[in-house]
Amino acid sequence: MEIQDIKVNLSIISVLAQYNLKPDKNKRIRCPFHEDRTPSMQVYPKTNTVFCFSSNCQLQGKAIDAIDFIMYKEGFDKLRPTEAKHEALKKAESLINIQTLPPVKPMQSAPTFYPEPVEGKEKNLNEIFKQLQINLNKSAQAKAYLQSRNLDSTKIEVGYNVTTTEGLKHCVVFALRDKNNNVTGLYGRCIYNNSTSSGSVQAKHFYLKESKGLYPHYPHPDTQKLIIAESIIDTASLQQIPLITDNYSLLSCYGTNRLNEEMKAAINELKHLKEIVFAFDNDEAGNKAVEKYTEELNQLLNTNRSPSPVERDGVRFSKLNLPCKDVNETLIAHNQEVFNHLLKERKILFQMKKEEQQQTLQIPKQATKPTLTAANNLNAPTLNFPTLDCKNPYKLLFTTQTALYYIKGGVDKIMNKLTVTIEIVNKQLNESINKRRFKVDLYDNKQVEKMIVEASEQLQINNLQLQMEIELLIGQLDEYREKEMQLMNEEINPESEQYSMNTNERTEAMQLANDKNLIQTIQEKLTQTGIIGEEENKIFLFIIGVSHIQENPLNALIQGSSGSGKTNLLKGIFRIMPDESKKIYSRCSEKMLYNVPKYYFKNKLICFEDVDGLGEEAEYAWRELVSNGELISGVSYKDEKGNIGIKELVVYGPITSIACTTKGAIYADNMSRLFLIAIDESKAQTKKINDYQAKEAAGLINKQEQKNNIRQLQNYVRILQPYQVHNPHATKLKLPEGITDERRLYRLYLYFIDMITVLHQYQRKKNTYGKLIATKQDCQIAKDLLFECIMLKMDELDGSLRQFFERLKEHIQKQASTNYEFTQREIREALHIKKTALSYYINELVHLEYVQQTSSHINKGNKYRIIHFDNYRKMREDVKTFLQRQIDSLPTEKTNE
What we know:
alpha/beta, DNA primase DNAg catalytic core, N-terminal domain, DNA Primase, Chain A, 897 residues, globular
């Protein structure tokens, strides 16, 4: 076999699987060629290569293909070069032979049905499927296939059939189950390409003949929200995502034409169903199927469901607008969090009309005989389906035609009981005798019956009426408690904090997203929102803020002297981010960041007006959220019986943070994912601010126009989706030497280019994996905006100190000699700087040996002179030229225009 044939037929994923190496969701593994605590080797399935970013690696910063990986892993590199390559090729060819598909007969297009199970009818399918699951663990090829589809066999039930008999051959196999969760059918997906050696088409999808059952299983009877996916692979993809499984039941449709009677019957049995979400392919067939099944299921549910007091409004139908062809491709191209966004932005097809509810309830046949009281002459009890008033969580109110029910102190959070203090008020009786109080566990039938008898006699309320109202109350308290518990644990709710844009707002946002001069237009709108000056800083911080939608968000620290305008710039950027995705704090306690609900900060923009005021514990927590994307702390607690236990508190990121400080140099070394920017403290910036304040005082600023621009930018951010980015130019972009924390800054440089691409997502092409492709223009924009940050990293002076030193040098150079000696008073008057700020600057420059104290006099003051005139301007020009030459050397992309 030729070398090129081996490279074409041997995937890097299958090679990694041979050595039990499994890429994570970011396509990274721990490098096997050096001690690696965190994944440093990136896997590129499209090019069949890997690259280790660690400086400790023997690969020394070079990409290697599958053959070279085998050579290094097997130790062949220690042989002579020709022998090493020969042995690696032999090993690679043997791996390809393992994958070769046995000859099969031409088959019809899927779905294909076969008359026999995998090993014959005599074996129970439950036992067969267990054996197939064991087979999977023994097959590197099957594991590699699942990895290529981003399917995790530890999170889903899947097997592998390696038999050579017809049907389900060389397929990963999924079980179809009946109501009792028994396996009653099997579905197989061939792991090889759908063509044979003779060129004929081979089917990819297989079902056993007369297969029955649903995948992944029958929905739970209490299901309120159901996602129906087009295929089993799509459903298996969704089954891996806690966001989905915590909030939805799942059902596979087996294709656009196979929503069968068994599925419909199972859906019709879901008496608490509120919504059906279709996750069908993003193509014509998928769209037509959604339209067809929406009509069929609406007719089914609308006709056959009997009214009941526990039922809510009619079932809603909606559809996911997938960014890729189907669910599985979307999972491959993006991280799992994209489904949070897709669920928030799902398209509502329509809301089924609420059925006409019965205005009276029939008396149950087994109802307890009413107690003989003055109220027994009432007609049959009536009910108007009251709802629970939850405005005051410590005094819930349930109102019916006959009585008021107050739940004093709220409800307990222990789910196996429902103990409440309930006050029942008869609205028809005199106030002095119209109420009674009970403390009762509403899950205890004996306690409830006793309360009903006593309340009925004492308050003269019909026993049956009271019984039915209490039943309704229990149902509503159950629902209320579940919602409260969900909020307490901050489980992700796809409908929470959702902002619905109207047609005009979405049209405006799309116009901005497709603007050919997007960055310049955003910069102009930022100015029109009231952010004065800071031209590059404000667009830079806007991009940082938008990065909260990404898996690898960016963070920034705004550094400047006191009163320089740091907080105003921060608040200006905060104001234009969507309300549902931001938090801002003037200060926070030491433990606050540890004690919020676990998803409270996830993919949020967090702003600190003054990070210098954070205590040591709070600063550490902030740094961990920025660097590691989560906070995990162990705390002790005492249970109801007084026993001491330990539990973990987890706060999930990732977060984007923007904070202000006067001490930029201190924090820059501590943060692993941080851009440091300097506030503009020039006279020109001061003049811009003063001019604006004068116009504002004169009433010349159009506040309504400012609000419109803020709203447009917020809606633009809302339509952006998280994406992975493929940057074909990354290997040609380098940073100049002499940069502090070069490794971290280089990673941030690449992430920032990714964000420029994400901002242009409606104008950028995608590769076969659904990733956005970065352009030369994206690299140019990123370089221009990052230039000042790069200079700050190269400079040992922080931003405000550098600005002062440049002004000081300019003043001294106007004098007779560069050895000119000066006093602090002279500089304070010449540069109009406050005494405390000037004293800080001079002391820092003396410490860093840029300035020397030449004399000291009690009455006349100290004298100083500059001893190090660095050529900062030339350094800036050299760095700018170095970076621009790299951009100029990049190939220009072809356009369709």
